[in-house]
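Hi U.,

Before I forget, here's the chain from the pilot set. I'm dumping it here mostly so it's searchable later in email.
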Amino acid sequence: MSEIDNTRVLLVDDEKDFLTTLADRLQLRDLKVRTASRGEDALEVIGTADVDVVVLDLSMPGMDGLQTLKRIKEQVPESEVIILTGHGSIRAGVEAMKLGADDFLEKPVDINQLLEKIEEAKQKRVLVLQSKSRDEIEKILKARSW
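Structure:
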C-alpha cells in the first residue's frame, strides 16, 4: 500500500466532464474522492468532511478559485490546496501561492504529476497535524501540575 492510498481528495471544477473523468481516474488509484462544481459547494464539503487535499480549478463562474481558496484557508487553515487551471498565468499562480495554495498545475494535467503533488500535499498535511497535536498535548501537560 502506497502513501497515497485512501487519501481523501476534494475536486472542485465547473467542467463536469473533466470533474467526472478526473474523479474516476483518482478513484481507480484508491483515492477517496468527493467533487464539487462550484466554490460554494466546496466550502460546504470542507465544513462537513475531513479532506486531505483539495484540487481546485482557478477559473469558475461565481466564486472563482482564488476566492474559494481564500475562504477554504479561513475555514480550515491547515488545508492543502493544489490549484488547477486551463488558463494559467504566472500572476495567478503567484497570487494563489500567496493565499496559501501548495502548488499550481496547468490543464491538461498529467495524472502522474497530479498524483505526485497530491502525495506531497498529504504528507505536508500529516506533518502539520502532528505538530499541531504535539503542541496541544504540551499545552495540556504544562497546564497540569503533576
